Amino acid sequence: MRVLVLLGLCLSLHTCGSFPNRVPGPDPFLDYDLLDEDLGAGGPRNRTGCGPCDPDLCPETRGCRAGLVPDSCGCCQECGNLEGQACDPGPRSVHYGLCGTGMRCRADPRPAGGPGPDPGLEEEDEQVCVCLDQDPVCGSDGTTYLNRCQFREAAFSDPDLRTRGKGPCKTVPVIKVPPQNQVNATGSSLVFLCEVFAFPMALVEWRKEGRDVILPGDDPHISVQSRGGPLKFEVSSWLQIEGAGPEDSGTYRCTARNNLGSVSASAVLGILGAEELSSYLANSVAEMKQLMDGSDYDQDLY
């Protein structure tokens, strides 16, 4: 009898040794997020909280100016990202979301002349939504939309908006950035800026009031430069004065014209000596302090 009991016990121990003594847990060496991405939108999504797809449970989407795109689970729809917003380059929303109608997720170009990345670090360029159709559109509201995506976004808010055709709207010049008033010291260098939008393109001129001369004229310490941009159908013009003196004080006018009309904007320049400038700055600081100490700033606006 003892022999049979010992034989049965040995068989039991041998059988139990063939099974694991615990339920396997998550593999610490397996990247589940990477595995989930490799499986694609149709793969298991338990770690991201996606269960069985039931379209009837999807939330209602409103105000999607760039149209609808699949959500991260590939079941419901959500608002697509607008032009210039960060995005996910793949076919599935992971972190930032997918681009809306007519756009593609592309690398955001670095600003010209900006600092480059640290050579010791590998940085990925940010992906942003870029409109595929970059042709300008003239709207029935007389506004020029620089691409089809901008027009589509405006049409979402104005259902009656239509296109007059491809290309910009013909219009008299519009000064987008007018010159600003300045006060500076004798001997300083300063710049006035004037940005103009127009189609056909505008010609920009500078004059000083009281003088019937288009600047710079024959004055060696005044120069004028113009170039296209920063946006399509825009012209940026600069008036620069080197070593300004009291005689340069006055009103400077930027005038833009094309064959449809003209528009102008002006700014005042004050050139002061050292004592006058110090007094002017002190008065400006006192006025600003008095304004900030006023009763309007003590009111609770929230």
From TrEMBL:
Pfam families: Ig_3 (PF13927), IGFBP (PF00219), Kazal_2 (PF07648). One of its GO terms (biological process) is regulation of signal transduction. GO terms for molecular function: insulin-like growth factor binding. Residues 133-171 form the Kazal-like domain. Gene3D superfamilies: 3.30.60.30, 4.10.40.20, Immunoglobulins. PROSITE patterns: IG_LIKE, IGFBP_N_2, KAZAL_2. Keywords: Disulfide bond, Immunoglobulin domain, Secreted, Signal. The keyword Iron does not apply. It is found in: Secreted. The keyword Disulfide bond applies. Residues 173-270 form the Ig-like domain. This is Kazal-type serine protease inhibitor domain-containing protein 1-like. The lineage of its organism: Eukaryota, Metazoa, Chordata, Craniata, Vertebrata.
